[in-house]
Amino acid sequence: MKKLMMIPGPTPVDQSILNALSKDTVSHLDPEFVKILKETLEDLRTVVMTEKGQPFIIPGTGTLGMEVAIVNSLKKGDRLLVISHGFFGDRFVEIAQCYGIEVEVLASEWGKIVEVEEIAKKLKEKKFDAITLSHVDTSTGVCTPLKEVGEILKQFPETEFIVDGVCATGGIEERMDDWGIDILFTGNQKAFGVPPGLTNAVFSEKALEGRNSLGKISAFYMDVNRWLPVMRDPAGGYFSTHSINMVYALQQGLKIMLAEGLEERFKKYRRFASAFQSGLKELGFNLLAAEEIRANTVSTILYPAGIEDLSFREKLYVNGVLVSAGKGVLAGKIFRLGHMGNISENEVVATLSIIEKTLSDINYDFRLGAGIGAAEKILFAK
Ligand SMILES: Cc1ncc(COP(=O)(O)O)c(C=O)c1O
Q1: What is this structure's pTM?
Q2: Fewer CB within 10 Å, N- or C-terminus of the chain?
Q3: Does the C-beta of 67 come closer than 6 Å to ligand 1?
Q4: Nearest ligand 1 atom to alpha carbon 138
C-alpha cells in the first residue's frame, strides 16, 4: 500500500514533477536549460515577492541555505542575534559558532514565541550585524510574525534580517521587499512539493552589498559572489555544475504553485490546518501552539492521556499514514503533521479517517466520525 506522507517535509510529489525529473539531462549551457533556469529564478522572485532581490539556486538543502546566509553576511567576531523557537532556530547557533561569530540567543519555550517587544528591546541594547529568525520552526509548529519584526528592524538598518523560510516559503505569505528581509532561503521539499536537493536563497541588494563588504570569506562553494555571474546570466559560463534535472523539477513545482495562485495556496493551507486542528481537537487531542501563532504548514499535536507515541505512530503507518515524531523535549509528547505542498482535501479527509481507524484499533474512547465531521464542516461548508 502506498502510504500517505503527511510529514512536514518531504511532502508528496506530484507526478508531473516526477516526470520533469526524468527529462533528458543536458549541458548547463544548453539554450533550453538556460531558458528554464532563467524562468525558474524569476519565478522564485515572484514567490518571495521581490523585484530586485537576487535568487540563487544551489544544489543542497535547507541547512546549506542557513550556512550560505551566515557565511555571506557575517565574519569572525561579528555579532549575531538568533531568535530561536525550537530545533531549527538553535541550529543557527551551531552554524554561526563554527565560523567564530559571536552569538546571542533569545529563545522561547518550545511551542511559544519570543515576543516582538523583547526583540526590539534587545536590538536597542546592543548593535547586531545580523538577526536570524525561522518563519516557521518545524519542530514546534509556531509561526513568527515576520512583518512586525521587519517593521522594527527598519529602525536598525545596520542589522541584516535573515529569514529561514524552509517550512514556510510558498505556503505562508512572505513579502521580502515590503518587510525588509535581506536574506530569505528555503529548500524544495516542503511547501514547494518538490523532491529535496536544492537550496533556494534570495539576497536583497543590501545583502549583496553586505557580502561585498566582507571581502574574502572562508567559503568557496557557499560564496554567493562566485555564483552571482551564472545566476545573473546562466548562459554566461560555469561556476559549478547545476543540478539540471532538479531544476526541471523545481520549475514544474513553481509552475504549479503560480498557476494555482500564491494567495489561493496560502488560503488553502489555512483551511487544511484548521480542518485538521478542529478534527483532532474533537478527538481529544490538543495543539501545542496557541492559535494566534500556529503555522498553516505544520501542526504539532499533543497526545491525550492513554495514547503512547511510538505505538500510535507505528499503527498509523501500518494503516497507511506517515507522521513525524516530536523532537527534543517534545519527543513522546507530540506528533507532527505536515499539511503543505501539493495536497488536496482528499489527503486531509483520508488522514483523519485513518487516524480514527487507528484510535479505534487501540481501543481509545471516542465517537467514530467525530474528527472527520468537524473537519468536513470546515472543508466543505458553503
Ligand atoms: C525550518 C527549517 N530550517 C532548516 C531545515 C533544514 O533543512 P534540510 O533538512 O533540508 O537541510 C529544516 C528541515 O526540516 C527546517 O524545517
Answers
A1: 0.98
A2: C
A3: no
A4: 16
The C-alpha atoms of residue 211 and residue 73 are separated, in whole angstroms, by 6
Cell 529535496, located at residue: 196
Q: What is the pLDDT of residues 118-177, one digit of tens each?
A: 999 999 999 999 999 999 999 999 999 999 999 999 999 999 999 999 999 999 999 999
The yes-or-no answer to whether 4-8+261-380 and 15-260 have a common fold is: no
Cβ within 8 Å of residue 165, ≥6 positions away: 48, 135, 174, 184, 185, 186
323-328 LR contacts (CB < 8 Å, sep 24+): 323/6, 323/7, 324/7, 324/8, 326/139, 326/300, 327/86, 327/87, 327/139, 328/86, 328/87, 328/110, 328/139
Alpha helical stretches, state H, 108-200: 116-125, 146-153
> For 247, phi and psi rounded to 5 degrees?
-65, -40
Atom 16 of ligand 1, residue of closest alpha carbon? 138
Domain extent listing, the chain: 4-8+261-380, 15-260
Mention every residue, 6+ apart, whose C-beta is less than 8 A from residue 311. 362
* Residue the block writes with cell 526583540: 119
CATH class of 15-260: alpha beta
Phi and psi torsions of 200, nearest 5° = -115, 110
CA distances from 369 to 166, 275, 346, 372, 373 (A): 34, 14, 16, 5, 6
- CATH for 4-8+261-380 is 3.90.1150.10
Express each pLDDT in 218-231 by its tens digit.
Answer: 999 999 999 999 99
Mutate to test the pocket of ligand 1, among 88, 142, 162, 336 (most ligand atoms within 8 A of CB): 88
Query: What is each CA distance from 49 to 36, 89, 107, 154, 323, in whole angstroms?
Result: 20, 24, 28, 18, 31
Ligand 1 center–CA 62 separation, angstroms: 5
Say yes or no to pLDDT of 382 above 90. Answer: no
d(CA 75, CA 130): 11
